[in-house]
Amino acid sequence: MHGGMxxxxxxxxxxxxxxxxxxxxxxxFETVGEGKQLPGSTYPCxxxxxSGFVITPTNIxxxxxxxFDEHYTLGEEEGYWEEYPLxxxxxxxxxxxxxxxxxxxxxG
Length: 108
What we know:
By secondary structure, the protein is an alpha+beta fold. The chain is built from two helices and five strands; from the N terminus they run αβββββα. The chain has helices at residues 8-20, 93-107, and strands at 27-37, 48-55, 60-68, 71-73, 82-83. Strands 1, 2, 3, 4 and 5 form a five-stranded antiparallel beta sheet that branches. A hairpin with a 2-residue loop joins β3 and β4.
């Protein structure tokens, strides 16, 4: 992440990893650059570890984008990739519901 925004390479990698899970309609939410540079960068901070939520029209997932065992991951190996209950979104619940509604409307 650079200035709070994803680099094009990060966007591409995240899109690919999510597509491998069948997730093509989504919005990333409350993402945080974790400050760890990952392999494959062509300039400083082009690809770094990122945590946050993936909101789809029907589900919410927590992820931690990282490098593990010679490949990029959403955190599956470390137990970070998991479905996250809407009820546990706390102060972000209403916004998460709005995002899901918008994604459903955009799809329809």
